[in-house]
Amino acid sequence: MIEALRSNNDLIISYFTLRKTLGLLGILLPFVLVFGNWIIFRDGLENSISSYYHTGMGDVFVGILFAMGLFLFSYKGYTRWDDYAGDLACLFAIGVALFPTTPENSPSDVARIFGQIHLAFAALLFLTFAYFALFLFTKTHPGREPTRRKRQRNLVYKACGAAIVLCIGLIVIVNLLPSEIASPIHVYKPVFLLEAIAVVAFGVSWLFKGEALLRDET
Asked: What is the pLDDT of residue 218?
């Protein structure tokens, strides 16, 4: 009996650790890319997070995405549909890593095709991030009442999910703007900033899911 309890406790701890690690990866991703590219390669801010694939930080970008994909694949929820969401998020993250965004300078036809595939995977990945925060993390185990801390965490999840959806919508709007309006705005790297906010929101939601903050009272 004691060994069974220890095994179950270790499993719970490992799941919390997994979730917190995934959250940290999401939060750190834009900062690692920006400061790594600036400190090591003396390059400036890119137009999007995906653009770092074509910089000296490309391997780091791909490596973090693969790590996130594996952690997402390991996610277990209350139902099989929750598990499917983690599997799909893993697929989308790996797709973003394997198909680079279209380079800005003289891209080939193949590079353009890869860029479109990359864009589709990235959009699906962000939508899955929002789905996790808004619909999966807010669930309570069947037959149980949500604790006070759980209700507080739910507010954080909803805020993070709303931020991700808002950022996705704003990215679409920015990309649809006429060139005479978009050109002055692009100086401020709006797509990168919106993607960074969305990824950080994803990371924060997973940190709270791992109960790094607002942990249930014992």
From this structure: 60
Q: Is 189 left (phi over 0), alpha (psi -120 to 50) or beta?
A: left
Of 63, 65, 61, 42, the C-alpha closest to 52 is 61
C-alpha to C-alpha distance for 164 and 161, rounded to whole angstroms = 5
* Cα–Cα distance, 31 to 192 (Å, whole number): 11
Q: CB burial class (10 A; 0-12, 13-18, 19+) of residue 157?
A: buried
CB 192 within 8 A of CB 168: no
Contact in structure between 205 and 16 (CB atoms under 8 Å)? no
Alpha helices in 42-76 (DSSP H): 58-73
Q: What is the pTM of this model?
A: 0.90
Contacts of 97 (CB under 8 A, 6+ apart): 61, 62, 65, 66, 69
Q: What is the pLDDT of residues 106-123, one digit of tens each?
A: 899 999 999 999 999 999
Instruction: List C-alpha distances in Å: 152 to 7, 109, 146, 147, 208.
Output: 29, 49, 10, 9, 10
* Over residues 176-190, mean pLDDT: 90
What is the Cα–Cα distance from 75 to 139, expressed in whole angstroms? 15
Separation between Cα atoms, residue 189 and residue 67, nearest integer Å: 26
Cβ 77 vs Cβ 136: under 8 Å: yes
pLDDT of residue 151: 93
* Chain centre to alpha carbon of residue 70: 13
